[in-house]
Amino acid sequence: MSLNAPKRRGRNEKRMNQRARVRGSFRDPAGSLCWIDGVLYREVRASYGEHYDHLVDSGLLAELFREELLGKL
User: Fold this and answer.
1) CA dist 19 to 11, 23, 38, Å?
2) Helix-, strand-, coil-residue percentages of the chain, each rounded to 5
3) Distance between CA atoms of residues 42 and 30, nearest Å
4) pLDDT tens digits along 48-70
5) Is residue 21 a contact partner of residue 33, using CB atoms and an 8 Å limit?
6) Domain boundaries, given as residue ranges, for the chain
7) What stretches of the chain show up as alpha helix (H) in DSSP?
8) Which helix (H) or strand (E) holds 39?
9) Tens digit of each residue's pLDDT (9 = 90 or more) over 9-45
10) In whole angstroms, what is the distance from residue 31 CA to residue 70 CA?
11) d(Cα 6, Cα 51) in Å, to the nearest integer?
């Protein structure tokens, strides 16, 4: 058996990295939402990257999280 061979999962062992896209997130042209292993993630499309960087650099995103207006980190 090779050391690099993928590990076989038992029947009852949880699969990792299960991903499910949020159906309504297609309405957002800048990105989408998806669930990965029970955690909600926000994907930002590369075409929106510059705008996202500006949002982060401005401090507004951190302030919105701090005030719990967008959720919690």
Assistant:
1) 19, 12, 9
2) 35, 20, 45
3) 10
4) 989 989 999 999 999 998 998 98
5) yes
6) 19-66
7) 49-58, 60-66
8) strand 39-44
9) 444 444 456 777 777 766 778 888 888 888 888 888 8
10) 16
11) 39
